[in-house]
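Shipment paperwork, digital attachment
Item: protein structure file
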Amino acid sequence: MKGFRFTDYKPEEGGGANFEKLLDIFQQLLLIFAGDVSQALDYMSELDRRYNLTDDKYAMADFIQELKDKGYIKEEEGEGQLIMTAKSEQSIRKSSLDEIFGKMKRSKTGGNHKTNFNGPGDESGADIRSFQFGDSLDQISMTESLKNAQVNSGLGDDFMLTERDLEVIESETKLHTATVLMIDISHSMILYGEDRITPAKKVALAMAELIRTRYPKDTLDILVFGNDAWTIQLKDIPYLEVGPYHTNTVAGLELAMDLLRRRKTKNKQIFMITDGKPTCLKEGIAYYKNAFGLDRKIVNKTLNIAAQARRMDIPITTFMIATDPYLKQFVRDFTKVNNGRAYYSNLDGLGGFVLEDFEKNRRKNVR
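Attachment content:
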């Protein structure tokens, strides 16, 4: 007699849930310590000593060995120093996406930005309608058209396919978006004991993973700006550190617009994460710096760049991690000139604001 045998559930011995819990802490520390595995593990050991993260059955040494066995870390050749692997970098991106944006399943129509308009697009829709002057031949549904011709004229010598028999398959216009994410790495991002660079890195990692998995036809360029601005690769994000820099917002925006000029799509946008005012300009090979108040020379140049982006139909969304009233006024002026958007966010709400704006700004006002 066939049936089911029920027994007591006995969980497997070993790391299991302990490993997943410790891995999450480890990945958070990797971002804080700019990808330094040794520092992250040292800090974890201190946390373990204080708060008993592990027990006698699964100690910290077991966790480190499991990290190696599962390919999250490895020893660098020649030096023996522990370093992150590509698997670890990918895992950090996924955990950042889950933490900030929530668990999003890959859409079956991933990579597409839909509009409310039908037209000649790169994807066939499900709707069929009568032929209209101007429709292309490749839109004609031959099966439906021949069926109509058979009904209207019958078979045999009288069979005829006319314009009234033709039916076309509606195609949907799909839109791709090019996004540049700017991250401020000036010294103010760690002033007063507040770590602002780690949340910014999480946002960048989460956005990159979101676009890679849900909107693979979109593009995301990431750049950092301090005294100067330069692009970084996705794999570089966990290792980002704040430098002894002022804030050259103009250099960052100029580079962002230069990157977007190379993108063929009409839908372009800039996200800028910063916590301070622009304090630096580059004039030739020299730098003009003023960290005290809002320097009119620097502000005017920054507003000019915002206006230039508006003329290029590139909206700039500013995420301001600051609450100073005079800085808010500058951001309001900057946003008005560009016709963009601005958010004043604390560190906890930063990711949610970015997601919300990214999702609804892909963009609705496409021309």
